[in-house]
Design brief:
CATH architecture: Beta Barrel
Oligomer: single chain
Number of domains: 1
Strand order of the largest sheet: 2-3-4-5-6-7-8-9-10-11-12-13-14-15-16-17
CATH topology: Porin
Helix content: under 10%
Number of helices: 1
Number of strands: 17
Largest sheet: 16 strands, antiparallel, barrel
Length: about 260
């Protein structure tokens, strides 16, 4: 399983129970989020009946902890979320020995995020390395769909790649171009989204600044000419929250996510 967790990188660059009272509808042609709905929180995600994520919320209703599970369904790490004056300022991920090995920090300009940095940390030595830096526009009139670019670093702290993101519709669908350290364009990726309620925003609300679900990803390797990607088919409840997501990859791999809300 290529579990998508925290890093919003080009697809090839990484290569790699819901309530019984919910009314299930299969893959609606046009979800209608404009209809007033009761707000729900996602509490659990399973892949083919094995746990992938569990979510805990604080007294303010904001995400406070994420349990991350392996392919076997066993817990392998926990991410804790910190806030300052109501704003999310840090996410720290710990292994089963409660040792910090990854964290995210956020920089704000006023009430709007302008930069996120991701660091890896070697638990045995405490050595920290910058892995990724993400930039956002700071437009008070545009609260979402404002990710502009990402920079990726190697183990020595050298810039190895960067991406530029352009949004192409009101759902948050986007086109991404990836460049290597020399400035050569290496990949182009198309992310398509629907207009239903996103299940994965809670994983990292600053990754895409999106509100809707990804329906397909198509990555073109501009070096060797190959194309890879995946499609996702959803079922939704009567309030437009996703209940299942069936992933179909270009290499033949398939699996299904099941989402539990409350």
């Amino acid at each position: 399983m290529k579990k998508i967790i925290f890093l919003a990188i080009s697809f090839s660059l990484l290569s790699s129970c819901s309530s019984s009272s919910d009314e299930v509808t299969s893959k609606p042609e046009s979800p209608k989020p404009e209809v007033p709905v009761k707000s729900k929180k996602i509490i659990e995600v399973k892949q083919d009946n094995k746990l992938v994520y569990t979510f805990t919320y604080n007294s303010d209703g904001k995400i406070s902890e994420i349990g991350n599970y392996s392919n076997t369904g066993s817990l392998f790490s926990t991410t804790k979320v910190e806030y300052t004056n109501g704003f999310e300022t840090r996410r720290s991920t710990y292994n089963l020995q409660n040792q910090l090995y990854n964290y995210h920090t956020y920089i704000y300009t006023g009430k709007h995020i302008s930069e996120r940095a991701i660091y890896s940390r070697e638990p045995s030595t405490g050595k920290e390395l910058l892995v990724q830096r993400t930039y956002y526009t700071n437009d008070p009139s545009k609260s979402d769909h404002n990710l502009t670019g990402v920079q990726y670093y190697d183990g020595s702290g050298a810039l190895v790649a960067k991406s530029d993101i352009t949004y192409i519709d009101s759902n948050g669908s986007s086109s991404t171009f990836v460049y290597n350290a020399a400035g050569k364009k290496t990949n182009s990726t198309l992310w398509m989204r629907d207009n239903a309620i996103a299940w994965d925003k809670v994983l990292d609300p600053f990754t895409y600044q999106h509100e809707h679900n990804t329906t397909s990803v198509t990555d073109n390797n501009l070096i060797d000419g190959t194309t890879t990607g995946y499609n996702i088919e959803y079922t939704y409840d009567s309030s437009n929250y996703p209940l299942t997501a069936k992933y179909s990859f270009s290499n033949g791999v398939k699996y299904t996510y099941t989402f539990t809300w409350q």
